[in-house]
Specification:
Blueprint: E1 2-7, E2 26-30, E3 38-43, E4 46-53, H1 61-74, H2 81-92, E5 96-102, H3 109-123, E6 126-129, E7 133-135
Antiparallel strand pairs: 1-5, 1-6, 2-3, 3-4, 4-5, 6-7
Helix pairs in contact: 1-2
Length: 141
């Protein structure tokens, strides 16, 4: 299981909100907790890894992903033009990408999506799943 969260803000502390939907999971950091490169949640159910990616220079990995996503939505003729343009605008204003990887066959897709959508909700971001669909988390009530 994999997805990428597109966020209009960089907020490394937002990953703590995932603890609300993964109670009892252990959290390990790669890098400093305030500026982590990976945040890894572990339990008997499996492992969820959140990888941070930000702009570092022209045509870096971040820029290539943003350009590819922007182009992809521009080619989606199945979507109405206003929807394509809104998606392209959102992608163009992305400041932080957080890749989410579930690394266990016993980890349910429900747990995986719940954790990814919780972080996206906290960041006012969207989740790009399976390289095809950009979904928005439901707002908090």
């Amino acid at each position: 299981m994999r997805c990428t969260i597109y966020s209009p803000v960089i907020d490394h502390q937002a990953v703590h909100s995932v603890r609300d939907v993964l109670p009892g999971w252990l959290l390990h950091w790669e890098g400093e907790p305030e500026q982590w490169s990976s945040a890894i949640f572990k339990s008997a159910q499996g492992t969820l890894t959140f990888n941070s990616l930000v702009f570092t220079g022209p045509m870096d990995q971040f820029g290539k992903i943003i350009l590819g996503s922007y182009s992809y939505f521009g080619r989606r003729e199945d979507l109405p033009k206003p929807v394509r343009e809104e998606l392209q605008d959102f992608v163009a204003h992305t400041k932080w990408l957080v890749g989410v990887v579930g690394t266990s066959e016993v980890l349910s897709e429900d747990v995986f999506l719940k954790a990814a959508l919780e972080l996206a909700r906290r960041l006012n971001g969207r989740v790009f799943v399976n390289g095809m669909d950009l979904i928005s988390p439901e707002p908090r009530v």
